[in-house]
Specification:
Threonyl-tRNA Synthetase, Chain A, domain 2; four-stranded antiparallel β-sheet; 17 strands; 48% helix
Length: 815
């Protein structure tokens, strides 16, 4: 839809102008209809009574003659003429003629002009729809209503709506009234709905613009009126998140932007122009078994090869066209350089020049500014790399090369990739895939403004994690406060729990649950596996001892700003604890926001999320908040990114596109291959732990979470516990026995020491690159987990069986 955006904007401007003309003509027609039709006889009668006797002419003539004679006698002046005084005795006849002839002719003309303009207006609306804009008429109506609502909300209307509890109206100064007039005249609201390039569904975009005042006093007062406008806009639009205020055009305009995904239909002509996605054949496997290592057919993510080739030719021509201009410009400013072959990336061209020397030193910023003027392109970046001068020129949107999702995943995953959190982010300027194991992050912050492609990029790299792993190795939890962006993920068999959309009631307990789960995993590392240091070592121990491995957990939070606005005090503590210790336990956070302000990206979040991924932002201030350096403000949007793993130098890349149709196809394939897992009852777990901390008793059976365990869970738990209960009931002593750490036999201590020694030996072999023999039989340590429970009330046999069953349920759901 990007290709038709300029045309759609032109038609939108035309339709808005025509609408204003129609509004004026409609008022004129209404007034003339009242005068010439409805009140015709009444007006003629009034005019006849007032003017037909020519009384007005006689009175005015008498006054003129009176004063004329007085001045003539006193000063000798000539007597004034009375011919200029109009006669009114025929005004009723003239009004009758005007209403019957020329007036009705004018009314007829205006009516015809109104009909013609209505037809032209309808044509502009149709053309806007044809160019890719959806529901343009409804958007225009909503924009006018929203403008009126904003003016009322900030109390800048004609009517004074302010007042205290006693009903006293606020008295405005002259400066306030000037500011209110300025806001009414200069406030512009535009609403546009289309499918931006790189998005899976229509996006409704809100753009509110207000021009600054003519004087500093007025400007400061305007800022006072709109300082909280972004939050007021959220109320006006019923929950849509808006960016904080931005400026453009040398601070001449104040901008507020927001967006919302919508379920709308495209025009048939637009659907015909859109590319048809390559359908994946789930029943076939390419020769050589290429798909054997993948959990779903990667062809689902493929792009049109012909389009890629066509766009690559356009990009190459674009690079060649600019090469000579750049060479000549560098020479004109005194730089002697040796050009190298440029790298044609998906969204930018990278020109490289050998060692340069000059009699006058030129900074990279000076070269950048002069090149932008020479090329007439905004967003050029200049930096040095290994003594080379590197010039990065963005490719226009119409000439960008789509990223083939299938191709870049194969380039990475056809090799030996073992980490379940390994993801493919996109394609770099050097045309090599940008990939990264998020377990090394250990936690990641993603930020970019509206339209930067943040959601699409996130969906793609999350899907890439699932291409080669299993639900036993990786669990994923999505927290989506916007409700609609991650709906297809509800079907994922990799889910740790259902997609969370309720921040207060679900997200906060879940984050607290992760902290509890993290501590339980550390306890397992120490007590069960002989003191392993992290999840990798524990899973190696589990394989050697034929125990069940523990999966990684990746938690993706789509909009941190909503979470921080609602529950900052409750959520910062679990984020801090997970940020400090979650990596070793295999729990990794990926937090995303479209509002990269200091209020959202607090110092605590920045400190605990060292890996940064920045997309297009509005200013260099936002870029520094995210990356600690400039650069993100120069990105082109639609997936153009800078990725800085663990604080390293940012790498530029272009993200791949993934549509909702592709997402549904991926999860349909995964659902056929893997069963949906049993979800833990994290609400009950958190409530139980908090009750223990407060010294209270927690009734599991009375809790909603316990009662809501599915019949499938109950069936599986009953089967698992049946043998255990039969064995326990055979011996009352086996049920009541509670061994503590100090009561272990010398044999158990010996085996424990042997396991610890073996683990250290394996660790040494891994560091030296030696092969570890996993086939030899390992000593098994049988540790009675009942030693971790203290039965202070000496409960009866039935109560202990119930406790054992409850404990087994909790352990199963927790892992």
């Amino acid at each position: 839809m990007a290709s038709g955006k300029e045309g759609a904007d032109n038609y939108a401007l035309a339709s808005r102008i025509i609408y204003r003309i129609l509004f004026v003509i409609a008022i004129c027609i209404a007034l003339m209809f009242v005068v010439f039709v409805l009140l015709k006889k009444l007006l003629i009668g009034i005019v006849s009574v007032l003017f037909d006797g020519d009384y007005e002419h006689k009175v005015v003539a008498w006054v003129v003659n009176l004063f004329g004679n007085m001045f003539h006698d006193a000063f000798g002046l000539n007597k004034p003429s009375t011919e200029w005084i109009p006669h009114t005795d025929k005004w009723s006849d003239k009004l009758t003629y005007a209403t019957e002839n020329s007036g009705m002719s004018l009314l007829t003309f205006l009516f015809i002009a109104f009909i013609v303009l209505v037809i032209v207006y309808i044509v502009t609306i149709i053309m806007r729809h044809h160019k890719g804009e959806m529901a343009p008429f409804l958007n225009d109506i909503e924009s006018r209503r929203m403008r009126r609502a904003i003016i009322r909300k900030i109390d800048a209307g004609y009517i004074n709506r302010s007042g205290d509890d006693r009903g006293n109206k606020k008295k405005y100064s002259k400066l306030d009234k000037k500011v209110q007039r300025h806001i009414r005249r200069r406030l512009k609201v535009k609403i546009n709905t289309n499918i931006p390039k790189g998005y899976p569904m229509p996006v409704k975009q809100y753009h509110i613009r207000l021009r600054r005042g003519r004087t500093t006093k007025i400007t400061n007062k305007i800022l006072n009126y709109i300082k909280d406008l972004h939050t007021e806009l959220t109320d006006i639009t019923n929950g849509i998140s808006f960016d904080q205020m931005k400026t453009e055009r040398n601070n001449r305009y104040y901008i507020f932007e927001g967006s919302q995904e919508k379920e709308l239909k495209e025009a048939p002509s637009v659907v015909k122009k859109r590319e048809e996605m390559t359908q994946a054949d789930n029943g076939t496997i390419e020769s050589g078994g290429r798909n054997d290592i993948y959990t779903f057919p990667l062809e689902i993510l493929s792009e049109d090869k012909d389009k890629i080739a066509k766009q690559r030719r356009k990009a190459k021509q674009f690079a060649d066209d600019n090469q000579g201009t750049i060479d000549m410009h560098l020479a004109s400013i005194g730089l002697q350089v040796e050009p190298k072959d440029p790298e044609v990336g998906n969204s930018a061209i990278e020109y490289m020049y050998g060692t340069r020397f000059t009699t006058a030193t030129k900074s990279n910023d000076e070269i950048k500014e002069s090149l932008e003027k020479a090329l007439n392109i905004i967003g050029v970046t200049v930096y040095t790399k290994a003594k080379d001068l590197v010039i990065n020129v963005p490719i226009p949107e119409k000439k960008r090369i789509p990223v083939d999702g299938e191709e870049i995943i194969r380039k990475v995953f056809d090799n030996e990739v073992e980490d379940p959190t390994h993801a493919v982010l996109g394609q770099g300027i050097d045309n090599k895939p940008l990939d990264y194991p998020f377990s090394e992050a250990p936690h990641t912050l993603i930020a970019g403004t509206t339209g930067s492609g943040k959601s699409v990029l996130s969906k793609f790299f999350l899907i890439s994690m699932l291409a080669k792993t299993t639900p036993e190795e990786l669990r994923m939890q999505i927290i989506d406060p916007k409700y609609i962006d991650f709906v297809p993920f509800e079907k994922s068999p990799f889910n740790f729990s259902n997609v969370i959309t309720d921040i207060k009631n679900d997200a906060v307990p879940f984050m607290k649950y992760l902290v509890i789960l993290m501590e339980e995993r550390f306890k397992m590392f120490k007590e069960k596996a002989g003191g392993t240091e992290n999840l990798v070592e524990y899973n190696e121990w589990a394989v050697e001892n034929k125990e069940e491995k523990i999966p990684y957990i990746v938690v993706f939070i789509d909009e941190v700003a909503d979470m921080m606005n609602q529950v900052q005090d409750e959520i910062e503590e679990p984020i801090q604890r997970l940020g400090q210790k979650g990596r070793a336990a295999g729990i990794h956070l990926i937090m995303s926001t479209q509002r990269p302000s200091r209020e959202v990206i607090t110092g605590l979040i920045k400190a605990n999320l060292p890996t940064k991924l920045a997309l297009s932002v509005g200013s260099d201030v936002d870029s520094r908040i995210i990356l600690g350096t400039n650069g993100a403000e120069e990105l082109n949007g639609k997936g153009d990114m800078l990725f800085s793993p663990d604080g390293s130098i940012p790498q530029r890349a272009q993200g791949a596109n993934i549509t909702r149709k592709q997402l549904n196809a991926v999860f349909d394939a995964l659902s056929e291959k893997f069963e949906k897992p049993i979800y833990p009852d994290y609400h009950a777990k958190v409530a139980r732990e908090e009750a223990k901390e407060n010294g209270e008793e927690y009734d599991e059976e009375a809790s909603e979470g316990f009662a809501a365990v599915s019949s499938l869970q109950q069936s599986r738990l009953e089967v698992d516990n049946e043998n255990e209960l039969n064995q326990d009931s055979a011996s009352e002593e086996g049920i009541n026995r509670r061994k503590t750490e100090s009561e272990r036999t010398e044999s158990e201590k010996s085996k424990l020491q042997e396991a610890i020694t073996k683990r250290e030996e394996n660790k040494r072999k891994r560091q030296n690159g030696e092969e570890i023999n996993t086939q030899e039989e390992k000593p098994k340590i049988q540790i009675d987990t009942n030693a971790l429970i203290r039965d202070k009330d000496k409960q009866s046999n039935n109560e202990q069986i119930k406790e054992t069953k409850s404990k087994s349920t909790s352990e199963m759901l927790g892992l």
